[in-house]
Amino acid sequence: MTKFDAPKPRRQLGLFDATMIVMGGIIGAGIFANPSEVAHRVHTPFVILGVWVVGGFIAMCGAFIWAELATRLPAAAGGQYVYLREAYHPAVAFMYGWGLLLITQTGGMAAVAVIFASYFRALTGVNWNDSVVAAIALLALTGINCFGARAGSNVQSVLMLLKIGAIAALVIIGLAVGHSSPESEVLLGQPVSFGLLKSIGAAMVPVAFAYGGWQTATFVAGEMRDARRDLSRGLLIGVGGVVALYLAVNLACLRVLGPGGLDSTTTPASDVMRIALGEQGARWIALAITISALGFLSQSMLTAPRVYYAMARDGLFFASVGKVFGKSGAPVIAIVLQGVAAIIIACSGTYGEILNFEVTVDFIFFGMTAAALFILRRRQIGSDMAVYSTPGHPFTTFLFVVSCAGIVISAVIASPTNSAIALCIMLAALPVYYFWTKLLTHEPRE
């Protein structure tokens, strides 16, 4: 067994498990808010639906790349952290873990908390600021998780079914009562120009965020009966299914609200159900979304500590961050750090600004991780057995890297201040890393 190999569990996962993990990792609360974020930036049905199709294709390319990385380096813990460490340098991996803690993981949590706040206000009618409601939700969940409250598999399954049920209801009712015909609208709404390209690039930022999560399925590659077959097929079916669901949601919103109505709201799902079924329908969908968002946030608080644990084992982070406490086994310090950072981000700007903050750094690391595949192949790093090969490599891999660069540039253009803050936080990891390794002595933990 090489140092990259992970032991096989008693129950190995199959195609159905892989597909559910893929879809569960992608479908969060973003799809209930991001249709309006996209409509803020592009204004015709053809372009709105088009960017969702392009985003799905990019997600598919990325999923295939991660499938090869996961079968090539089936590490026990760390995922993307391990890929970056083996391909580049521990400093790059440390920067990723640093960014995960202070920007990407916490930024994603902050964004979902703001979605929760929007629908919570629509449900209850409270006249509070979204940031305040989001901060209260994050603070409460941080405290609960520190005491070791864990959502069991049955609870998570119920929440997943609730999300799918809410999406299905939104699509069926929206298509049934909608009257607007997207086919009758103009295609682009403006001449082909740099301005149009800039608008499309800005619209790709919320789309990229909504499709994020497919990479989490690769964490369980070492637990599958046949990773080459089941993971690749699960990624294809899972991402393809999500693309179909997302397109259906956007089509339903466009039929009921039209491009202008979608542009003018921050709670498109509630507005669709209000038009279709009145206030009772709006309250029902808002309740489903708020519960779904809370479940996603609670689950997210316990996923990233595996990276901090891997960093601590490498002697690159405080050992206490990856440590679990008491009978609950909760990584309290990591949870508190995540919660505090997420609250700060949630109070720092609007939902769209938070998206640009998070996506800027997230897609830098996505691009670097995809490019790592070239390095790992050339150096022949990783397992030589049961390695899934990325379809169309090197062309699809290069296309994904270029797409990531384009999304980063679009995020910077759309929100230069928030993107600059995120980039400065990310780059601050380098002096911290060299201070840590040069001036402090930390041996990797066994």
Describe this structure in words.
The longest helix has 37 residues, at 227-263. Helix 5 packs antiparallel against helix 14 (351-379). The chain is mainly alpha-helical. 71% of the residues lie in helices and 0% in strands. It has helices at 15-26, 34-41, 45-72, 80-87, 90-124, 130-146, 153-177, 194-211, 227-263, 268-277, 279-300, 305-313, 332-346, 351-379, 395-414, 416-427, 429-439. The two termini are 17 Å apart. The radius of gyration is 21 Å and the shape is globular.
Uncertain stretches of 5 or more adjacent residues = 1-10, 149-154, 442-446
Q: What's the number of extended β-strand segments?
A: 0
Query: Which range does the strand content fall in?
Result: under 5%
Distance between the termini: 17 Å
Helix-strand pattern, N to C?
A: HHHHHHHHHHHHHHHHH
Structural class: mainly alpha
The helix content is over 70%
- Summed up, the helix count is 17
Largest sheet: none
Q: Tell me, briefly, the overall form.
A: globular
Average pLDDT number: 82
- Give me the Rg, rounded: 21 Å
